[in-house]
TrEMBL record:
Species name: Ilyodon furcidens (goldbreast splitfin)
Gene3D superfamilies attached to this UniProt entry: CAP Gly-rich-like domain
Cited Pfam families: CAP_GLY
SUPFAM superfamilies: Cap-Gly domain
Signal peptide: none
Protein name: CAP-Gly domain-containing protein
Location of the CAP-Gly domain: 101-178
Length: 236
């Protein structure tokens, strides 16, 4: 079944029935059925997170529409509550949609932020009739000092997604991946610092800083000198 023949939704509020469907679940309905039911207050949808391959009658007030790319990206993120938070952070999803093979990124793995290059974008498990999408993941080849800190050579189960040296690859959902060079959707700010404050800091470093009296966290993406004063650009 072609994914373009389907209409996707994310559950934003817990339905009164069925009670086992959680907010953040991804569901879908076939396009021809959606067009025939578009005027109704409820839709008969199938949930990708459900263990039951049965349609569920859910109120439209409990869901919001997604395009196929958004649904595929979000499905890779667990649990459902985290996925819902990501959906509400539209910049994060839009940034992920701009990532391509060859993009330099920072990936979070075992509490560390590692530098790498995207070598693969796609599913870890093959789609089937009841699961037309299975989640879009990023296969990343680690670079420089971070080589060897991964967990794969580019193979998942018996599926070869990309090739790299042993333990030099990572598979991750978009929630753990950030471009080294921010896109127009990546929130960032520039701050002036003294030479002493920027000593030892390089792009890719995680930093804590004070802005308008608040402690904030971010990642250094660029350091430039302006009129003899270092200016640090931080992705927030």
């Amino acid at each position: 079944m072609n994914s373009s023949e389907l209409i996707y939704f994310i559950i934003t509020e817990k339905p009164k029935t069925p009670t086992h469907i959680k907010p953040g679940s991804i569901c879908y309905i076939r396009d021809y059925r959606y067009r025939s039911e578009v005027s109704l207050k409820r839709l008969l949808v199938e949930c990708l997170d459900s263990h039951y391959n049965l349609p569920h009658d859910i109120s439209k007030d409990c869901m919001q529409k997604l395009n196929a790319d958004e649904a595929d990206l979000l499905l890779a993120c667990q649990p459902e509550s985290h996925r819902l938070n990501l959906f509400r952070n539209t910049d994060a999803v839009q940034t992920a949609l701009t990532l391509t093979v060859g993009t330099e990124v920072m990936v979070e793995e075992d509490g560390e932020k590692l530098r790498g290059i995207i070598r693969y974008i796609g599913p870890m498990n093959d789609p089937n009739y009841s699961h037309p999408i299975t989640g879009r993941y990023f296969g990343i080849e680690l670079q420089g000092a971070d080589k060897g800190k991964g967990s794969t050579n580019g193979t998942f189960s018996s599926k070869k997604c990309f090739s790299c040296e042993k333990n030099c690859g990572v598979f991750a959902p978009f929630s753990r991946v950030r471009p080294v060079v921010p896109t127009s959707h990546s929130p960032s700010m520039s701050m002036h610092h003294t030479q002493q404050q920027t000593e030892g800091i390089i792009p890719g470093d995680s930093v804590m800083f004070v802005f308008n009296g608040d402690v904030r966290f971010g990642m250094v993406v660029d350091i430039q000198e302006e009129a003899g004063t270092p200016m640090v650009r931080i992705s927030t």
